[in-house]
Each structure stands twice: as structure tokens, then as C-alpha cells.
Amino acid sequence: MHILLVASAFNSLTQRVHAELRDGGHTVAVELATLDASARDVSLRRTVREFAPDLVLAPLLKTAIPRDVWAAHTCMVVHPGPPGDRGPSSLDRAVQEGADTWGVTVLQAGEEMDAGDIWASETFPLPAVGKSDLYRNEVSDAASRAVHRAVERFASRTYVPRPQTGGDKELCIRTRPFLRQEHRRIDWRSDSTATVLRKLRAADSSPGVLDELLGGEWFLHGGHPEHELRGRPGELVAVREEAVCRATVDGAVWIPELRPRRRPGGDATFKLPAVTALAGRLPALPEHPAPLYDEERGRGWSDIGYREVGQAGFLRFSFPGGAMSTTQCRRLHDAYRLACRRPTSVLVLGGARDFFSNGIHLNVIEAAADPGEESWANINAMDDLVESVLTTTDRLVVSAVGGNAAAGGVMLALAADEVWCRSGAVLNPHYRLMGLYGSEYWTYTLPRRVGEETAERLTGRALPVSAESAVRLGLADRTVDCDAQSFAGEVVRLASRLAESPAALSRIAAKKTERDRDEARRPLADHRAAELAEMRRIFFDPRSSYHALRHAFVLKSPPAGSEPKTPGPPAAGRSCRKDGVTALAAHHAAPAPSACYEEQ
Description:
By secondary structure, this protein is an alpha/beta fold. It folds into 3 domains: about 1-165 and about 560-590, Formyl transferase, N-terminal domain (Rossmann fold), CATH 3.40.50; about 185-275, Formyl transferase, C-terminal domain (Methionyl-tRNA Fmet Formyltransferase, Chain A, domain 2, Roll), CATH 3.10.25; about 295-490 and about 505-535, 2-enoyl-CoA Hydratase, Chain A, domain 1, CATH 3.90.226.10. It has 21 helices and 25 strands. It has a 6-stranded mixed sheet, sandwiched between helices. A 6-stranded mixed sheet has the order 17-18-19-20-22-25, sandwiched between helices. Helix 1 runs parallel beside helix 5 (about 130-155), helix 12 packs antiparallel against helix 19 (about 525-540) and helix 14 crosses helix 15 (about 450-460). The two termini are about 30 Å apart.
């Protein structure tokens, strides 16, 4: 079929639906609903008229579809709540209220938001993680299943969707209002650690929890429990790497990111690592580092950890939004070198749920006194890490991609000998939509895996790739078909089996020979020098599009003077504007190469 996706952003779920529908043989176009109401409706009507879709599907839509569109075409909307749930803060409320299970519903657009007939629904358990993590994993998995079922039912032309009526005794209809900051606010004098964590996790990526801290107003983003430190409720008691620890009435929580409240008439603000955001305000606090080895840490939180199971080592890392700053790259590189000193035959890089990596940290770069210099430092730190992976010849290295990856994050994964992707992961192996040439040895690793022609197509078309397609193209070696909570355990099982296999030692020996042969053909240093020459030219040219695109991405505003585009080609034999996403930059119409995606 010809399916038009209508979305408020080309976010992770929209990317996944887009990629999977294309995998299924459908022709897919995208209309991003980002303009003011009148212009948005005009643009959508024009796209519908020109593309003539069989079905209109909205994976993420914060606005209503015009009446004349849903009256003339079947329009389905994905709602991140169970059947009968209505309102714009469905998932936020589920997390903050501590729900054990939740659901996703695909319903038909109509006069009243979230009240249309039900085409499909799925339920799933809610683990104790942040809302955006849930959205990219459990919600995304359930939404994918529900969307495919709804599309199949629509294609059958025989299925009658289930009405949402009061006469359905199995349907509990609840309409709940937007969850405002006054209902998110933390009372540090009385809220338990569990309550604080639920409030933080319900707002982790967006909108954050508004609070007062060190004489300023800040949005708090993300939260992890601390089981040892104590202090006066509300006070900062320690720092760990780039996070701050704040005491509660019965414990403490780690807060990794902060965003200052925007002043009336002031510039837009954006998230930064907490210690960076509080520079100049932060009092002298004790550094409370976490041991690298998970066994020594107990139940404490850290963004990097290492463990061993038999002959397999597991270096896990999890950075907010998948973005990796210069500091984070260097810390991970240090941990990687320590892991390489251990007597293992297999080293797994990654293996945690959610993002693998999205490359350089655009927010930290934007906040730097000299963004060009910070960009340069960040890309060199990424290159150093990737080089170490590429030149590890005394063991097999596996990249375990539990969540999405983009740009330099994909190239980091490709540096390993094998790439294992969770079945719900989406890869974006390209840079150009941020105005970048790219580095991380991509000119070596990408063609080595998929060939020159496919590498050129992947980097040029700049479209998301599903895990299934990644294996088919050669970007990945296997999909791990499991839910996000089970991924780490499955990786341990597979890596242990690989380490114990008789072929492991012979593969390690062959790896050294192959690396020597490739080095003789063209040294890695040549790839790095050529890539960095292009990147240096871009970073230090104030007129390069990278600076405008980065600024717009970080502040979530359309960059001036850019040409908008719609992801995906027009249908054969049908008219469809290639620039069908009006007034939105090309890098917004497809996933940005490095970033903390805002999902809600």
C-alpha cells in the first residue's frame, strides 16, 4: 500500500514505523506537522492530494488531523495508552503513578481526540526506568506490533474496528488532563526516594521537573537511586562524573542533566550535564566515584560498568540520549583499555537497554565558549575510542546494540568484529543531515561491511534502517529477538557461548592477519587524516551549515534558509512533493545524527 505518516517529529517511533513498513513492501511518505495550525492543515491537505495514500498513519501526533482529511481517508493514530485512556500525558502519568502495566492503542482519527474506533491494541509491563527509555523500547515494541496488526486488518477490507462506547463493559474510559508542573513538583521535605524517582522518570527527557537549586530555577532531567549517601533533604551531597547527588528524606538520587528555566524574552535553553550546567554555582562537593567493576559497586548507579562471565567481558555504558561528550568518550576509552587488560577472549561493548550511541554531544558543543574547538576535541576523542576497538587483535569484540544508534554511534558499533542488534533497534548510518562529512573511520568500516555502492546509498539517502534490514545489508550480524529488559541476559548467553566455541581462537588469529593486510593496503591513519581534514574545514568555518543546523537542533527550532524534505521517495506513478514537509529543515525531517531525542 501507499502509506502516509503524519507526525509532529520524525522521532524514534516514527523512524521505526517508517523503516518497518518499507521492509514490508509498502511505499511510505512522511508529512511533519510542525507549522501553525492553518499552514499545517494546508500542507497536509496538499500532500494527501498529491500522494493519494491508501492509509494515513500518525505514530506521534500532538495536533488534530483536519476533519475533511479524516472524513475522506482512513486515518489511524497511535496513542501511548491502553484502550479507553485519553489525554496528552498518558505515559507520563503511568510512570509517575507507578503503574505496573500499560498499553498502546491504534485508533481511528475522529472528532474527539483519542476517542476513535480501535483498530489494534497491545499491553506490556512497565519496568522502573525513565519515560523516554520506555517510549523507545516497551512502548515502541508494543506500538510496532499494534501498527502491523492494524495495517493488516485495514488491508483485509473485512475487519470492523471496535467502537469506544460506554456500552462496552470491558472498556474503562478515562480522560485525564495535561500533567502540569504543579503536579510534577518534588517536595524534598516529604517525598520519599521512590516518589522522587517516579516524578523524575516521568519527565526525564521532556519536560523535566521544575525545581529551585543553588539560587536558580532548573528543570531536572533523569534520576537514579543512591543507596549509601545521605544528607539534609533537598541539598546536594556529592558529584559523580557529571551528575549531582541530591538527598531525599530517606536516601538520595543522582540527577545527570539540568536545564535552566527560560526567562521571559530570553533565549531558549537546553539540557546539559548537571556539573557543566552548574559551573560557577556548584559548591565544593565530595567526588563519589563508582568502581568500574559491577561486582564492587553493589546496587549503585554509574554510566559505565564492567563485569565478566567466564571468558567473556562486558563493558556496558549508558549516556543520556546516547550523546557522548569529549569527557564521556575519554572515560569510556579509559574503561575500554582497562577491559582489554583482562584475560578474556570476547569483549562485549554495550549490551544495555536503550540508546547505544548517537555520536558527538551537540548540546555540550553548543554551550562551549568555542563550539568549533569543542567539536574538534569531541570528534578526536570519538576517533581515539574507535581506533582502539579497530586495533584490538587479541580477542573478539562484539557491539551489543540494545537501542537506537546514529552517525558516529553506528560507526563505533561497526568497529567491532560482530554487531548484534536488538530486534527493535533503529540505525541511522549517516552524517550529512547535520552538515557533516563524518569521521570515526567510517570510510573504512562502512564499505568494508556493505560495499562501496551501498555505503554511498546509506550515507546519501539518510534514511533509518531497521535491525532486520541492517542484517540483510551487512551492517549487523544478528538480531536478538527479545524485549529490552531481557537483552542484557541474552547478550551474556550469546557471548559466553561465543567465548567457549572452539572457533574463537582461530578467529582471533585470523583477525590479526586481516588487520595487518588492511593496514598494508591503506593505513587507518590515512582514513583518519582524510576524514578529519573534511571535519576540520567544517568545524572552523563559521559559515558552514553545521553550525546553523546544530544550533537549530539543540534549541529545537527550524534553521533559517534550509530546504525542507520528506523522508522517503514518492510512490511510483503518483505525484508527491519531495519537499513535502513544509518549513522544516532536512535534518529534522530525518533523524539528527547525534542527539537526545525528545519523545513526548
